[in-house]
Protein backbone atom coordinates (compact mmCIF):
# COMPACT_ATOMS: atom_id res chain seq x y z
CA UNK A 1 0.00 0.00 0.00
CA UNK A 2 1.33 3.42 -0.96
CA UNK A 3 0.58 5.87 1.82
CA UNK A 4 -0.72 9.37 1.08
CA UNK A 5 -0.42 12.05 3.75
CA UNK A 6 -3.78 12.91 5.26
CA UNK A 7 -4.75 16.12 6.99
CA UNK A 8 -6.33 15.66 10.44
CA UNK A 9 -8.29 18.25 12.39
CA UNK A 10 -10.14 17.81 15.69
CA UNK A 11 -13.75 18.91 15.32
CA UNK A 12 -16.70 19.45 17.62
CA UNK A 13 -17.49 16.68 20.06
CA UNK A 14 -14.10 15.08 19.59
CA UNK A 15 -14.73 13.93 16.00
CA UNK A 16 -11.72 13.88 13.72
CA UNK A 17 -12.06 15.44 10.29
CA UNK A 18 -10.11 13.60 7.63
CA UNK A 19 -8.92 15.44 4.50
CA UNK A 20 -8.49 12.92 1.67
CA UNK A 21 -6.81 14.07 -1.58
CA UNK A 22 -8.40 12.56 -4.66
CA UNK A 23 -6.72 11.60 -7.94
CA UNK A 24 -5.92 14.03 -10.75
CA UNK A 25 -8.90 14.87 -12.95
CA UNK A 26 -9.20 14.76 -16.71
CA UNK A 27 -9.78 18.29 -18.11
CA UNK A 28 -12.98 17.19 -19.90
CA UNK A 29 -14.65 16.19 -16.63
CA UNK A 30 -16.65 18.84 -14.81
CA UNK A 31 -18.03 17.16 -11.68
CA UNK A 32 -16.51 14.81 -9.14
CA UNK A 33 -18.21 12.94 -6.32
CA UNK A 34 -16.00 11.59 -3.55
CA UNK A 35 -17.54 8.94 -1.33
CA UNK A 36 -16.30 6.99 1.69
CA UNK A 37 -17.95 3.67 2.53
CA UNK A 38 -17.58 1.60 5.69
CA UNK A 39 -19.82 -0.44 7.98
CA UNK A 40 -21.42 2.83 9.15
CA UNK A 41 -22.67 3.75 5.70
CA UNK A 42 -21.76 6.37 3.10
CA UNK A 43 -20.35 9.89 3.35
CA UNK A 44 -20.20 11.78 0.05
CA UNK A 45 -19.18 15.19 -1.33
CA UNK A 46 -19.74 16.84 -4.73
CA UNK A 47 -17.22 19.17 -6.38
CA UNK A 48 -17.29 21.37 -9.47
CA UNK A 49 -13.85 20.67 -10.90
CA UNK A 50 -13.39 24.01 -12.77
CA UNK A 51 -10.14 22.86 -14.39
CA UNK A 52 -8.70 21.90 -10.99
CA UNK A 53 -6.57 18.78 -11.21
CA UNK A 54 -7.06 17.68 -7.59
CA UNK A 55 -9.81 18.16 -5.03
CA UNK A 56 -10.01 16.84 -1.51
CA UNK A 57 -12.90 15.82 0.70
CA UNK A 58 -13.26 16.63 4.38
CA UNK A 59 -14.60 13.40 5.84
CA UNK A 60 -15.63 12.81 9.46
CA UNK A 61 -14.88 9.15 10.07
CA UNK A 62 -14.00 6.87 12.96
CA UNK A 63 -10.26 6.55 12.48
CA UNK A 64 -10.27 3.29 14.43
CA UNK A 65 -12.09 1.69 11.50
CA UNK A 66 -9.72 -0.52 9.53
CA UNK A 67 -11.79 -1.00 6.41
CA UNK A 68 -12.89 2.17 4.61
CA UNK A 69 -13.26 2.29 0.82
CA UNK A 70 -12.94 5.56 -1.07
CA UNK A 71 -14.51 6.19 -4.48
CA UNK A 72 -14.04 9.05 -6.97
CA UNK A 73 -16.78 9.34 -9.60
CA UNK A 74 -16.12 11.79 -12.45
CA UNK A 75 -18.81 13.12 -14.80
CA UNK A 76 -18.75 15.11 -18.01
CA UNK A 77 -21.73 17.21 -16.81
CA UNK A 78 -21.52 20.21 -14.52
CA UNK A 79 -23.21 20.55 -11.14
CA UNK A 80 -25.66 22.96 -12.79
CA UNK A 81 -26.55 20.24 -15.29
CA UNK A 82 -27.42 18.01 -12.35
CA UNK A 83 -29.32 20.83 -10.59
CA UNK A 84 -27.02 20.30 -7.62
CA UNK A 85 -24.71 22.43 -5.50
CA UNK A 86 -21.30 21.46 -4.25
CA UNK A 87 -20.60 20.19 -0.75
CA UNK A 88 -21.66 17.27 1.34
CA UNK A 89 -24.33 15.03 -0.16
CA UNK A 90 -26.56 13.65 2.55
CA UNK A 91 -28.70 10.59 1.86
CA UNK A 92 -31.10 11.36 -0.97
CA UNK A 93 -34.66 12.08 0.07
CA UNK A 94 -37.92 12.64 -1.82
CA UNK A 95 -37.11 16.32 -2.49
CA UNK A 96 -33.38 15.92 -3.11
CA UNK A 97 -31.63 14.84 -6.29
CA UNK A 98 -34.84 13.35 -7.69
CA UNK A 99 -33.09 12.19 -10.86
CA UNK A 100 -30.24 9.76 -11.18
CA UNK A 101 -26.72 11.02 -11.76
CA UNK A 102 -26.29 8.51 -14.55
CA UNK A 103 -23.23 6.49 -15.45
CA UNK A 104 -19.91 8.15 -14.48
CA UNK A 105 -17.28 8.65 -17.18
CA UNK A 106 -14.52 7.40 -14.86
CA UNK A 107 -14.61 5.63 -11.49
CA UNK A 108 -11.59 5.18 -9.22
CA UNK A 109 -11.23 3.39 -5.92
CA UNK A 110 -8.75 3.44 -3.02
CA UNK A 111 -8.62 1.87 0.44
CA UNK A 112 -8.04 3.71 3.72
CA UNK A 113 -6.16 1.74 6.35
CA UNK A 114 -4.10 2.98 9.27
CA UNK A 115 -4.62 6.61 8.19
CA UNK A 116 -3.01 5.96 4.80
CA UNK A 117 -4.70 5.89 1.40
CA UNK A 118 -3.67 3.26 -1.14
CA UNK A 119 -3.07 4.02 -4.80
CA UNK A 120 -6.21 4.97 -6.72
CA UNK A 121 -7.17 2.36 -9.32
CA UNK A 122 -9.70 2.54 -12.13
CA UNK A 123 -12.71 0.24 -11.76
CA UNK A 124 -15.74 -0.35 -14.03
CA UNK A 125 -18.87 1.66 -13.16
CA UNK A 126 -20.65 -1.67 -12.58
CA UNK A 127 -18.49 -2.14 -9.47
CA UNK A 128 -19.84 0.96 -7.70
CA UNK A 129 -21.37 -0.40 -4.46
CA UNK A 130 -25.13 -0.34 -4.26
CA UNK A 131 -24.85 1.61 -1.00
CA UNK A 132 -23.36 4.55 -2.90
CA UNK A 133 -25.97 4.35 -5.65
CA UNK A 134 -28.78 4.35 -3.08
CA UNK A 135 -27.18 7.27 -1.21
CA UNK A 136 -26.80 9.45 -4.29
CA UNK A 137 -30.09 8.98 -6.13
CA UNK A 138 -33.80 8.65 -5.61
CA UNK A 139 -35.57 6.37 -8.05
CA UNK A 140 -38.88 7.50 -9.45
CA UNK A 141 -40.64 7.22 -12.78
CA UNK A 142 -39.00 10.36 -14.15
CA UNK A 143 -35.45 9.18 -13.51
CA UNK A 144 -32.95 7.15 -15.44
CA UNK A 145 -31.14 4.92 -12.98
CA UNK A 146 -27.54 3.84 -13.15
CA UNK A 147 -27.05 0.72 -15.25
CA UNK A 148 -24.96 -1.73 -13.21
CA UNK A 149 -25.91 -4.80 -15.27
CA UNK A 150 -22.99 -6.96 -16.33
CA UNK A 151 -22.39 -9.00 -19.46
CA UNK A 152 -22.33 -12.77 -19.03
CA UNK A 153 -19.66 -15.07 -20.46
CA UNK A 154 -19.83 -18.85 -19.92
CA UNK A 155 -17.87 -21.99 -20.74
CA UNK A 156 -19.80 -25.27 -20.44
CA UNK A 157 -18.52 -28.67 -19.30
CA UNK A 158 -20.58 -31.88 -19.50
CA UNK A 159 -20.99 -34.19 -16.50
CA UNK A 160 -20.90 -37.81 -17.66
CA UNK A 161 -23.77 -39.02 -15.50
CA UNK A 162 -27.46 -38.96 -16.48
CA UNK A 163 -28.59 -38.59 -12.85
CA UNK A 164 -29.47 -35.11 -11.59
CA UNK A 165 -26.74 -32.89 -10.17
CA UNK A 166 -27.56 -32.39 -6.48
CA UNK A 167 -24.37 -30.69 -5.18
CA UNK A 168 -22.27 -27.80 -6.49
CA UNK A 169 -20.10 -26.56 -3.66
CA UNK A 170 -16.93 -24.44 -3.49
CA UNK A 171 -14.43 -26.56 -1.55
CA UNK A 172 -11.48 -24.14 -1.88
CA UNK A 173 -10.55 -20.97 -3.76
CA UNK A 174 -10.31 -22.70 -7.13
CA UNK A 175 -12.61 -25.70 -7.42
CA UNK A 176 -16.16 -26.82 -6.85
CA UNK A 177 -17.30 -30.28 -5.88
CA UNK A 178 -20.10 -31.57 -8.11
CA UNK A 179 -22.16 -34.56 -6.93
CA UNK A 180 -25.06 -36.38 -8.55
CA UNK A 181 -28.07 -38.30 -7.33
CA UNK A 182 -26.30 -41.54 -8.31
CA UNK A 183 -23.53 -40.66 -5.79
CA UNK A 184 -20.82 -39.92 -8.34
CA UNK A 185 -18.48 -36.96 -7.90
CA UNK A 186 -16.19 -34.70 -9.92
CA UNK A 187 -14.41 -31.43 -9.20
CA UNK A 188 -14.90 -28.52 -11.59
CA UNK A 189 -12.57 -25.56 -12.17
CA UNK A 190 -12.33 -22.76 -14.72
CA UNK A 191 -10.45 -25.18 -16.96
CA UNK A 192 -12.51 -28.36 -16.83
CA UNK A 193 -13.65 -31.46 -14.94
CA UNK A 194 -11.68 -34.01 -12.89
CA UNK A 195 -13.24 -37.31 -11.83
CA UNK A 196 -13.09 -38.08 -8.09
CA UNK A 197 -13.73 -41.85 -7.90
CA UNK A 198 -12.58 -41.97 -4.27
CA UNK A 199 -15.86 -40.21 -3.39
CA UNK A 200 -18.15 -42.33 -5.55
CA UNK A 201 -20.74 -44.02 -3.35
CA UNK A 202 -20.60 -41.29 -0.71
CA UNK A 203 -23.87 -39.46 0.14
CA UNK A 204 -24.75 -37.27 -2.84
CA UNK A 205 -27.93 -35.35 -2.00
CA UNK A 206 -26.60 -32.48 0.16
CA UNK A 207 -23.30 -30.78 0.83
CA UNK A 208 -21.79 -27.92 2.82
CA UNK A 209 -18.44 -26.68 4.13
CA UNK A 210 -17.76 -25.68 7.73
CA UNK A 211 -15.46 -22.90 8.93
CA UNK A 212 -12.63 -25.38 9.58
CA UNK A 213 -12.58 -26.43 5.93
CA UNK A 214 -14.37 -29.75 6.41
CA UNK A 215 -16.71 -31.11 3.74
CA UNK A 216 -20.09 -32.45 4.85
CA UNK A 217 -22.15 -34.79 2.66
CA UNK A 218 -25.69 -36.05 3.30
CA UNK A 219 -27.95 -38.55 1.58
CA UNK A 220 -30.39 -41.43 1.84
CA UNK A 221 -31.24 -43.10 5.14
CA UNK A 222 -30.10 -40.06 7.11
CA UNK A 223 -26.48 -40.80 6.21
CA UNK A 224 -24.01 -37.95 6.90
CA UNK A 225 -20.21 -38.01 6.53
CA UNK A 226 -17.74 -35.21 7.17
CA UNK A 227 -14.01 -34.57 7.06
CA UNK A 228 -11.31 -33.21 4.70
CA UNK A 229 -12.78 -32.31 1.28
CA UNK A 230 -11.81 -35.45 -0.64
CA UNK A 231 -11.84 -37.92 2.30
CA UNK A 232 -14.90 -37.05 4.50
CA UNK A 233 -15.08 -40.35 6.38
CA UNK A 234 -16.30 -39.30 9.85
CA UNK A 235 -19.85 -40.56 10.38
CA UNK A 236 -22.55 -38.35 11.93
CA UNK A 237 -25.59 -40.09 10.47
CA UNK A 238 -29.08 -39.50 11.90
CA UNK A 239 -30.14 -42.77 13.54
CA UNK A 240 -33.92 -42.24 13.38
CA UNK A 241 -34.02 -41.06 9.73
CA UNK A 242 -34.61 -44.41 8.01
CA UNK A 243 -36.82 -43.73 4.99
CA UNK A 244 -35.62 -40.11 4.83
CA UNK A 245 -32.96 -38.52 2.67
CA UNK A 246 -30.88 -35.60 3.94
CA UNK A 247 -31.49 -32.93 1.29
CA UNK A 248 -29.82 -29.90 2.91
CA UNK A 249 -26.99 -29.45 5.42
CA UNK A 250 -25.52 -26.42 7.20
CA UNK A 251 -22.84 -26.00 9.86
CA UNK A 252 -23.21 -22.61 11.55
CA UNK A 253 -20.44 -20.25 12.63
CA UNK A 254 -20.88 -21.71 16.14
CA UNK A 255 -20.47 -25.30 14.81
CA UNK A 256 -24.14 -26.27 15.25
CA UNK A 257 -25.33 -28.61 12.48
CA UNK A 258 -28.77 -28.34 10.87
CA UNK A 259 -30.30 -30.78 8.38
CA UNK A 260 -33.45 -30.91 6.27
CA UNK A 261 -34.61 -34.46 5.51
CA UNK A 262 -37.51 -35.52 3.28
CA UNK A 263 -39.12 -38.80 2.31
CA UNK A 264 -38.55 -39.88 -1.29
CA UNK A 265 -42.13 -38.86 -2.09
CA UNK A 266 -41.56 -35.45 -0.46
CA UNK A 267 -44.69 -35.91 1.64
CA UNK A 268 -42.95 -35.58 5.02
CA UNK A 269 -40.29 -33.01 5.97
CA UNK A 270 -38.11 -33.17 9.06
CA UNK A 271 -35.83 -30.48 10.50
CA UNK A 272 -32.91 -31.72 12.62
CA UNK A 273 -30.34 -29.98 14.82
CA UNK A 274 -27.07 -31.37 16.19
CA UNK A 275 -25.24 -29.73 19.08
CA UNK A 276 -23.71 -32.76 20.74
CA UNK A 277 -26.54 -35.07 19.65
CA UNK A 278 -29.19 -35.09 16.94
CA UNK A 279 -32.56 -33.62 17.92
CA UNK A 280 -35.70 -33.66 15.78
CA UNK A 281 -37.01 -30.08 15.85
CA UNK A 282 -40.04 -30.40 13.60
CA UNK A 283 -41.91 -32.83 11.36
CA UNK A 284 -44.50 -31.71 8.81
CA UNK A 285 -46.69 -33.78 6.53
CA UNK A 286 -47.51 -32.00 3.29
CA UNK A 287 -49.43 -32.80 0.10
CA UNK A 288 -47.42 -34.62 -2.55
CA UNK A 289 -47.21 -31.40 -4.58
CA UNK A 290 -46.41 -29.23 -1.59
CA UNK A 291 -42.67 -29.77 -1.23
CA UNK A 292 -39.79 -30.88 -3.40
CA UNK A 293 -36.49 -32.34 -2.27
CA UNK A 294 -34.52 -30.57 -5.02
CA UNK A 295 -35.47 -27.22 -3.48
CA UNK A 296 -34.57 -28.01 0.13
CA UNK A 297 -31.93 -25.59 1.42
CA UNK A 298 -30.50 -23.88 4.51
CA UNK A 299 -28.88 -20.47 5.06
CA UNK A 300 -27.42 -18.70 8.10
CA UNK A 301 -28.33 -15.06 8.78
CA UNK A 302 -26.07 -12.43 10.31
CA UNK A 303 -27.71 -12.75 13.74
CA UNK A 304 -26.89 -16.48 13.89
CA UNK A 305 -30.40 -17.70 13.12
CA UNK A 306 -30.90 -20.20 10.30
CA UNK A 307 -33.57 -20.33 7.60
CA UNK A 308 -34.69 -23.66 6.15
CA UNK A 309 -36.89 -24.34 3.12
CA UNK A 310 -38.21 -27.60 1.68
CA UNK A 311 -39.70 -26.38 -1.60
CA UNK A 312 -43.13 -25.66 -0.07
CA UNK A 313 -44.62 -22.29 0.87
CA UNK A 314 -43.27 -22.66 4.43
CA UNK A 315 -39.93 -21.46 5.76
CA UNK A 316 -38.46 -22.30 9.16
CA UNK A 317 -36.61 -19.66 11.17
CA UNK A 318 -34.36 -21.62 13.53
CA UNK A 319 -32.74 -19.86 16.48
CA UNK A 320 -29.31 -20.88 17.84
CA UNK A 321 -30.90 -22.31 21.01
CA UNK A 322 -33.11 -24.72 19.05
CA UNK A 323 -36.36 -22.76 19.20
CA UNK A 324 -38.00 -22.00 15.87
CA UNK A 325 -40.95 -20.50 14.03
CA UNK A 326 -42.75 -21.70 10.94
CA UNK A 327 -43.43 -18.76 8.65
CA UNK A 328 -45.45 -18.44 5.44
CA UNK A 329 -44.13 -15.31 3.68
CA UNK A 330 -46.55 -13.22 1.60
CA UNK A 331 -44.89 -14.29 -1.65
CA UNK A 332 -46.12 -15.72 -4.92
CA UNK A 333 -46.13 -19.38 -4.07
CA UNK A 334 -43.57 -21.99 -3.01
CA UNK A 335 -40.04 -21.11 -1.84
CA UNK A 336 -37.56 -22.76 -4.18
CA UNK A 337 -34.15 -21.12 -3.48
CA UNK A 338 -32.46 -19.24 -0.66
CA UNK A 339 -29.29 -17.23 -0.06
CA UNK A 340 -28.20 -14.31 2.14
CA UNK A 341 -27.07 -10.88 0.93
CA UNK A 342 -24.68 -9.05 3.30
CA UNK A 343 -26.84 -5.89 3.33
CA UNK A 344 -30.26 -6.80 1.96
CA UNK A 345 -30.67 -9.82 4.22
CA UNK A 346 -32.48 -13.04 3.40
CA UNK A 347 -33.11 -13.71 -0.30
CA UNK A 348 -35.91 -16.11 -1.27
CA UNK A 349 -36.69 -17.34 -4.78
CA UNK A 350 -40.09 -18.72 -5.70
CA UNK A 351 -41.50 -21.24 -8.15
CA UNK A 352 -43.04 -18.36 -10.12
CA UNK A 353 -39.58 -17.00 -10.89
CA UNK A 354 -39.42 -14.01 -8.51
CA UNK A 355 -36.88 -13.11 -5.84
CA UNK A 356 -37.66 -11.30 -2.58
CA UNK A 357 -35.53 -9.94 0.25
CA UNK A 358 -36.19 -9.19 3.90
CA UNK A 359 -34.14 -8.13 6.90
CA UNK A 360 -36.50 -10.04 9.20
CA UNK A 361 -37.96 -13.31 7.88
CA UNK A 362 -40.54 -13.35 10.68
CA UNK A 363 -42.01 -10.05 9.46
CA UNK A 364 -44.41 -9.28 6.62
CA UNK A 365 -41.91 -6.86 5.09
CA UNK A 366 -40.63 -8.47 1.89
CA UNK A 367 -39.38 -6.57 -1.17
CA UNK A 368 -39.59 -7.97 -4.70
CA UNK A 369 -36.26 -7.57 -6.49
CA UNK A 370 -35.49 -7.66 -10.20
CA UNK A 371 -37.51 -9.10 -13.09
CA UNK A 372 -38.85 -12.67 -12.95
CA UNK A 373 -37.23 -15.45 -14.96
CA UNK A 374 -40.63 -16.81 -16.09
CA UNK A 375 -40.05 -20.30 -14.66
CA UNK A 376 -39.29 -21.91 -11.30
CA UNK A 377 -36.33 -20.17 -9.72
CA UNK A 378 -34.02 -23.05 -8.77
CA UNK A 379 -30.78 -21.32 -7.72
CA UNK A 380 -29.79 -18.09 -6.01
CA UNK A 381 -26.37 -16.80 -4.98
CA UNK A 382 -24.34 -13.69 -4.22
CA UNK A 383 -21.47 -12.43 -6.38
CA UNK A 384 -19.92 -9.23 -5.08
CA UNK A 385 -22.90 -7.00 -4.34
CA UNK A 386 -25.20 -8.65 -6.89
CA UNK A 387 -27.91 -11.25 -6.38
CA UNK A 388 -27.79 -13.88 -9.14
CA UNK A 389 -30.73 -16.20 -9.73
CA UNK A 390 -31.64 -18.76 -12.36
CA UNK A 391 -33.61 -21.75 -13.50
CA UNK A 392 -33.93 -24.34 -16.22
CA UNK A 393 -32.50 -23.82 -19.70
CA UNK A 394 -29.77 -21.51 -18.47
CA UNK A 395 -31.92 -18.47 -17.79
CA UNK A 396 -29.99 -16.16 -15.45
CA UNK A 397 -31.14 -12.97 -13.74
CA UNK A 398 -29.02 -10.44 -11.88
CA UNK A 399 -30.12 -7.80 -9.39
CA UNK A 400 -27.96 -4.80 -8.46
CA UNK A 401 -29.41 -2.45 -5.87
CA UNK A 402 -29.98 1.03 -7.33
CA UNK A 403 -29.60 -0.18 -10.93
CA UNK A 404 -32.07 -0.45 -13.77
CA UNK A 405 -33.58 -3.92 -14.08
CA UNK A 406 -31.17 -6.22 -15.86
CA UNK A 407 -32.55 -8.28 -18.74
CA UNK A 408 -32.62 -12.00 -18.06
CA UNK A 409 -29.84 -13.80 -19.90
CA UNK A 410 -30.15 -17.13 -21.70
CA UNK A 411 -26.50 -17.55 -22.75
CA UNK A 412 -25.20 -19.62 -19.82
CA UNK A 413 -26.24 -22.72 -21.72
CA UNK A 414 -26.87 -25.10 -18.80
CA UNK A 415 -29.73 -25.69 -16.38
CA UNK A 416 -29.22 -23.52 -13.29
CA UNK A 417 -30.17 -25.61 -10.28
CA UNK A 418 -27.14 -24.76 -8.11
CA UNK A 419 -24.29 -22.26 -8.01
CA UNK A 420 -21.05 -21.68 -6.11
CA UNK A 421 -19.33 -18.28 -6.07
CA UNK A 422 -15.60 -17.64 -6.32
CA UNK A 423 -13.66 -14.39 -6.30
CA UNK A 424 -13.50 -14.18 -10.11
CA UNK A 425 -16.59 -16.07 -11.25
CA UNK A 426 -19.36 -18.54 -10.51
CA UNK A 427 -19.71 -22.28 -11.10
CA UNK A 428 -23.30 -22.94 -12.12
CA UNK A 429 -25.07 -26.04 -13.28
CA UNK A 430 -27.79 -28.60 -13.13
CA UNK A 431 -29.53 -31.12 -15.28
CA UNK A 432 -32.60 -33.07 -16.15
CA UNK A 433 -32.64 -36.78 -15.43
CA UNK A 434 -35.12 -37.28 -18.27
CA UNK A 435 -32.82 -35.78 -20.91
CA UNK A 436 -29.40 -36.54 -19.45
CA UNK A 437 -28.42 -32.91 -19.95
CA UNK A 438 -26.16 -32.62 -16.91
CA UNK A 439 -23.64 -29.81 -17.34
CA UNK A 440 -21.83 -27.16 -15.36
CA UNK A 441 -20.64 -23.79 -16.60
CA UNK A 442 -17.87 -21.46 -15.48
CA UNK A 443 -19.53 -18.02 -15.64
CA UNK A 444 -17.80 -14.65 -15.60
CA UNK A 445 -19.61 -11.31 -15.25
CA UNK A 446 -17.81 -8.54 -17.13
Task: Give me a quick take on this structure.
The protein has 446 residues and is mainly beta. 2% of the residues lie in helices and 44% in strands.
The first-to-last residue Cα distance is: 26 Å
Radius of gyration: 24 Å
The overall pLDDT average reads: 85
Percentage of β-strand residues = 35-45%
Low-pLDDT ranges:
1-16
Total strand segments: 37
The largest β sheet comes out as: 7 strands, antiparallel
Commentary on this structure:
With 446 residues, this protein is mainly beta. The protein has 1 helix and 37 strands. Strands 3, 4, 6, 7, 8, 9 and 10 form a 7-stranded antiparallel beta sheet that branches. Strands 11-37-36-35 form a 4-stranded antiparallel beta sheet, with no helix packed on it. It has a 4-stranded antiparallel beta sheet with strand order 12-13-14-15, with no helix packed on it. It is elongated.
Keywords:
elongated; four-stranded antiparallel β-sheet; disordered N terminus; seven-stranded antiparallel β-sheet; 446 residues; single chain
SSE diagram, text form:
Elements: E1 7-10, E2 16-21, E3 31-38, E4 41-48, E5 56-60, E6 68-75, E7 87-89, E8 106-113, E9 116-117, E10 121-122, H1 130-136, E11 152-158, E12 165-170, E13 176-180, E14 185-189, E15 192-195, E16 206-209, E17 215-218, E18 224-227, E19 234-235, E20 244-251, E21 257-263, E22 268-274, E23 278-285, E24 296-300, E25 306-310, E26 315-318, E27 324-327, E28 335-341, E29 345-350, E30 355-358, E31 367-369, E32 379-383, E33 386-390, E34 396-399, E35 418-422, E36 425-430, E37 439-445
Amino acid sequence: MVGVALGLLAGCGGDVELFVPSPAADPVHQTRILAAVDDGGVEAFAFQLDDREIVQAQFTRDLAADDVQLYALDYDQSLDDFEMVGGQLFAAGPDERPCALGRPAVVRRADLRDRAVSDWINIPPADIPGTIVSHLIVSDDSCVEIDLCRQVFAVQYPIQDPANIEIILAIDDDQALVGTRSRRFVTATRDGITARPQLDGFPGRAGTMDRDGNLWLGGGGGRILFGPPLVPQNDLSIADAAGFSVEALLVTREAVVFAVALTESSTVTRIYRHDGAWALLDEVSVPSNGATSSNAALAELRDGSVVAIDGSATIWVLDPDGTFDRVTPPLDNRCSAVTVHPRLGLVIGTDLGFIYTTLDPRSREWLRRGPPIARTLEAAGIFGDAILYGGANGILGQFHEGSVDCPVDATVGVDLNLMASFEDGIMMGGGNIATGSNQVAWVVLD
